[in-house]
Design goal:
Blueprint: E1 3-8, H1 15-20, E2 24-26, E3 29-32, E4 38-39, H2 48-56, E5 61-64, H3 68-80, E6 84-89, H4 97-111, E7 117-121, H5 127-141, H6 146-159, E8 160-165, H7 170-174, E9 178-179, E10 191-197, E11 203-210, H8 212-226, E12 234-239, H9 243-256, E13 261-266, H10 269-275, E14 280-285
Parallel strand pairs: 1-2, 1-6, 6-7, 9-11, 12-13
Antiparallel strand pairs: 3-4, 3-5, 8-10, 8-14, 10-11, 12-14
Helix pairs in contact: 3-4, 5-6, 8-9
């Protein structure tokens, strides 16, 4: 039985990749206070410099999760044409969107009892989500069935390490994305926090460094320590308009265990509004259970 892979714009995948691999993508929405709502769609045409500069100047961004009805409107035509649905989404620990997809899937199963509606919680965001989508595409193209793909995706999610640093904890605190934020001292004396997505998909603090360079060095050290077969991996970097730190991180990644490929993207506007200007994130695969380290 054929199936349709769906993701959302948090996955930070390009329009070209989506189209070439016959995926479908649901957009998140955002708006600056006092302005009209905008859809997050094509990251290729997204002016990240202007966007993050504006946030850095104090502009506030409001974001919205995707509701169940939107999911159902997308799922229904797929089921009507006789295909199953595989939705791969952002961590349920940082957005209610995954719960919306689950509600929609359960209701659609009643309407189409002969179809499968499967939702996968990546416990990640940005290219942490995108890497799992890319894995699903690879497995689909190898001819694996939906039933065969699911346990492989679950295992890859447990092996996915996501670490990032931000210029300020203000944005994560304001939007409630950071677990245990009150216990972490930051935003003073040029202390840069290192944060990760843990085994539950929550954002937690794992270390701190004095200054940007040290923070980036510590991120690269975790790649050296935790990555498995780095030379065969596609490693991903997402940043919120931070060329200098991305250049340093790329140099350090290539020093000891150069990846097969490094993909760099600008954080799309919705996820990016929560991490704030200057954020840099690194995504790679390690051993099973690495998310807890």
């Amino acid at each position: 039985m054929s199936f349709q892979i769906i993701t959302d714009t948090s996955s930070n995948l390009t329009k070209r990749y989506i189209e070439e691999n016959k995926l479908m993508m649901l957009p998140f929405t955002y708006r600056f206070e006092g302005e009209d709502e905008q859809y997050c769609m094509e990251i290729e045409n997204f002016d990240g410099h202007a966007y993050y500069e504006r946030i850095g100047e104090g502009a506030k961004v409001q974001t919205s999760q995707i509701n169940p009805e939107t999911f159902k409107d997308l799922f229904r035509p797929i089921a009507e044409r006789g295909d199953d649905v595989l939705y791969i989404g952002m961590s349920s620990a940082i957005s209610g969107t995954f719960q919306s997809s689950h509600i929609a899937a359960e209701e659609m199963k009643e309407e189409f009892p002969d179809r499968e509606f499967v939702t996968v919680d990546t416990k990640g965001a940005s290219l942490g989500e995108g890497l799992i989508v890319m894995e699903a595409v690879k497995l689909r193209d190898e001819g694996k069935t939906l039933t065969e793909i699911l346990p492989i995706l679950d295992e890859r999610i447990e092996c996915l390490y996501q670490i990032f640093t931000v210029e300020s904890l203000t944005h994560l605190k304001r939007t409630g994305r950071l677990t245990g934020a009150a216990a972490f001292v930051g935003n003073i004396l040029n202390i840069k926090p290192l944060l990760k997505g843990n085994e539950h998909g929550q954002i937690v603090s794992v270390d701190k460094a004095r200054g940007n360079k040290k923070a980036i060095q510590k991120m690269a050290e975790r790649y050296d320590e935790f990555s498995v077969n780095g030379e065969a991996q596609t490693v991903c970097i997402a940043d919120a308009d931070n060329d200098e730190d991305v250049a340093l991180l790329t140099e350090l990644l290539n020093r000891n265990h150069p990846p097969k490929e490094i993909i760099r993207v600008c954080y799309e506007p919705v996820t990016g509004s929560h991490v704030g200007p200057g954020a840099v994130a690194l995504f790679f695969y390690g051993e099973k259970g690495v998310r807890a380290r």
